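Ticket #4471: structure output looks truncated?

Reporter: J.K.
Steps to reproduce: submitted the chain below (375 residues) through the standard prediction queue, then opened the result file.
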Amino acid sequence: MSNVRQWLHKQLKKRQEIGNLRTLKLTENLIDFSSNDYLGLSFNEQLLSSIRDACASPGLSIGSTGSRLLTGNSQLHLDLESKLAAFFQAPAALLFNSGYAANLALISAVPQRGDTILYDQAIHACVKEGARLSQANYHSFRHNDAGDLNQKLKRSTGNKFVVVESLYSMEGDTPPIKDIISLCRQFGAELFIDEAHTTGWAGSGGEGWIIEQKLSHEFLARVYTFGKGLGTHGACIVGSRELIDYLVNFARPFIYTTALPPHSLISINCALEFLKGPTSPGTTLKERINYYLGQAEKIEVEKSLNIDSPIQWIMAKGNKNALALSDYLKNRGFDVRPILSPTVPEGKERLRVCIHSYNTEEEILNLISTIVKKP
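Returned output as attached by the reporter:
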């Protein structure tokens, strides 16, 4: 066995021994308290029907055939980007194949050598990877700690960029955004935000948290993803026309990637249309969140009680404890996934409980009761 193969074997064995070996699993016939499909749009029959009808158009191709700068651009792309810009109240939008790719493109392309990127400690891995690919200096600041950000900004050089999420995927909380905006103004820093976990359900029409807060003008760029609340796939960056033109010219994850195919573009468009219902898309979801919060008071171990957040957690402390609790719930019909170190810091291992608009009050009550009864 070569040195490389020995190393691969050793790394996997080490992961297995400490209880955080990742494997691909199927989940069938379990009550979903794990997915990011907050509104249940990924299996909504009305949305599925509208996508099928739109895809039945004569002459529609299966694939995009290339990158946007070669043969992959289409009127579908341009029309959808115009619609996304209007929906997210921005001058322009640019489509990406995923939220990961969008953040990677933005963070790696805009900050330059000598600049400084400051991101929240709990930020998604794609932002950290984008920072590593950039020529800039980069540092994290303590989660939702404006005081620590202030100290880091004082020591920053060059152009300064601050990156946050509107809803953190592991913590389930929102940032102290007005304090962060104030600091960015004070130090002349540009602000980026990832709205992955609020797209589709936050705001009166699903436009996300920042528009709901009436603060969209404070950001150089905002990232929205479609694989969670919208139940489809892909993402976009919105901002000024100049920013979008810059990304078309300098963002390698955009330039060298095969464009989204027509089916994906149609699915995103149909999902946006679906949100134009008579009631706010997040209404039922917020009702379910409130019901969960009321019942979760019964859980005696450390837990989150995040207001207006579909992401909650129950602390397990230790990979083995988190895995055991997840297996206990799985054996009783619930899909609640463990979040293990190194995804979260050691000692912060937990179950991540995702609430959906399609979870019934009975399902939520049974989940809480099952957790409380665990010996």
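Triage note (M.O.): checked the attachment and the full token line is present. The chain is about 40% helix and 15% strand.
Status: closed, working as intended.
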